[in-house]
Design goal:
- This protein is 40% helix and 20% strand.
- It is α/β, with parallel strands linked by helices and 368 residues long.
- It folds into two domains: 133 residues, translation initiation factor eif-2b, domain 1 (Four Helix Bundle (Hemerythrin (Met), subunit A), Up-down Bundle); 221 residues, Translation initiation factor eif-2b, domain 2 (Rossmann fold, 3-Layer(aba) Sandwich).
- Strands 8-7-6-9-12-17-18 form a seven-stranded mixed beta sheet, sandwiched between helices. Strands 13-10-11-16 form a four-stranded mixed beta sheet, covered by helices on one side. Strands 3-4-5 form a three-stranded antiparallel beta sheet.
- Helix 1 packs antiparallel against helix 2, helix 2 packs antiparallel against helix 3 and helix 3 runs antiparallel to helix 4.
- It binds 5-S-methyl-1-O-phosphono-5-thio-D-ribulose.
- 5-S-methyl-1-O-phosphono-5-thio-D-ribulose binds next to helix 2 and strand 11.
């Protein structure tokens, strides 16, 4: 997508030195646009853990490039042991998104093809690039399938804007390019449909305010930032035509883990007859699970994120301030699970399907 009119992906090899991986430092957005150099697998683990890079698709692609960096670092004499240790370290960085382990496993299968360490380094580079390119291709297809849904809403209200509510950032910053929840929005905007996005701020880390608002602004898509609790009110007053969120892990029966607060949006959407779609590439499915609430691991992060907020002061400095009394205890769950029964449909690279075992199985008979 565009940053100040320049096309960018979110992860790439450094031009002129392909032994270095470059990423956009998302902790700095929207106040600064900075590129970070990552030199080894430890750098990549740190970047994923601290959310320099985040979002299900992107942490999958970054984990793949982490395995490539590990292959460059590994000594020939203990190549396999180092790669195994690196795979485990990458998988341990964040627990909820399926894409992370999916990408590491795929890299390990590519490396298991054999050959000399040098051949395997080349294989790792090719496999990481393939994962990144596939992520872009799948997001583009999600956009095409989701566009049809937005078109049909637009046809029902000619001359009026289609209002879409989204939560967190499942945009191009959460993938290699384009995004999942944002893909249909970008496709509709490009097709000349008047769309407007309600952007939930997404406490505690404010991915909506910091990232989604920034990326929609960069692409020129009309949007309005709202506090997290506003969505239900807007739905009661007919101001939301559809909800589209991303997902971090979706079970084979269609339960979807996404950023904390998504479940409340789904409940409000259900109560108000607003269609609630979840957009995801197939790498986000976990076909081994069939009960999202009971089985999906939910990341609990440091309570500091709840007790403090960061932002830019009038003189341009970025500062962090406490918003509660000094000793207030806090807890910080990063994700919640929306049961399949509250989801109107899943927008995947192969099409739109009901959030059910039968619906998902029909679209992915080879995997379900
Ligand atoms: O904690 P994050 O920012 O890595 O959370 C992931 C997300 O951005 C959201 O849950 C998103 O909607 C799904 S990721 C495509």
């Amino acid at each position: 997508m565009q940053v100040d009119g320049q096309p960018y992906r979110t992860v790439w090899l450094k031009p002129g030195n392909e032994q270095v991986v470059q990423v956009i430092n998302q902790i700095k957005l929207p106040h600064a646009f900075e590129i970070e150099d990552l030199h080894g697998v430890d750098d990549m683990c740190h970047a994923i853990k601290t959310m320099v890079v985040r979002g299900a698709g992107l942490i999958g692609a970054c984990a793949a490039y982490g395995m490539y960096l590990a292959a460059l670092e590994a000594h020939d004499a203990n190549f396999e042991a180092f790669m195994q240790q690196s795979a485990e370290a990458l998988k341990a960085t964040r627990p909820t998104a399926s894409n992370l382990a999916w990408a590491v496993d795929r890299m390990q299968r590519a490396l298991a093809q054999g050959g000399t360490p040098e051949q395997r380094r080349r294989a790792a580079k090719a496999a990481a690039a393939a994962i990144a390119d596939e992520d872009v291709d799948h997001c583009r297809r999600i956009g095409a399938h989701g566009l049809a849904l937005i078109q049909s809403i637009a046809q029902r209200k000619p001359g009026q804007v289609v209002n879409i509510l989204t939560h967190c950032n499942a945009g191009w910053l959460a993938f290699v390019d384009i995004g999942s929840a944002t893909a249909p929005i970008y496709a509709a905007h490009d097709a000349g449909i008047a769309v407007h996005v309600w952007v939930d701020e997404t406490r505690p880390r404010n991915q909506g305010a910091n990232l989604t608002a920034w990326e929609l602004g960069q692409q020129g898509v009309p949007h309005t930032l709202i506090a997290d609790n506003v969505g239900g009110h807007l739905m009661q007053h007919g101001l939301v035509d559809m909800v589209i969120t991303g997902a971090d892990r979706v079970t084979r029966n269609g339960d979807a883990a996404n950023k904390i607060g998504t479940y409340l949006k789904a409940l409000a959407a259900h109560d108000n007859g607003v269609p609630m779609y979840v957009a995801l590439p197939s790498s986000t499915f976990d076909f081994t699970l069939d009960d999202g609430v009971a089985q999906i691991p939910i990341e609990e992060r440091d309570a500091t994120e709840v007790r403090y907020v960061s932002g830019q002061t009038g003189d341009g400095a970025v500062e962090t301030v406490r918003i509660c009394p000094p000793n207030t205890p806090a807890r910080n769950w990063g994700f919640d699970v929306t049961p399949a029964r509250l989801i109107t449909g899943l927008i995947c690279e192969r099409g739109v399907c009901p959030a059910s075992t039968a619906g998902i199985g029909a679209l992915f008979p080879d995997q379900a």
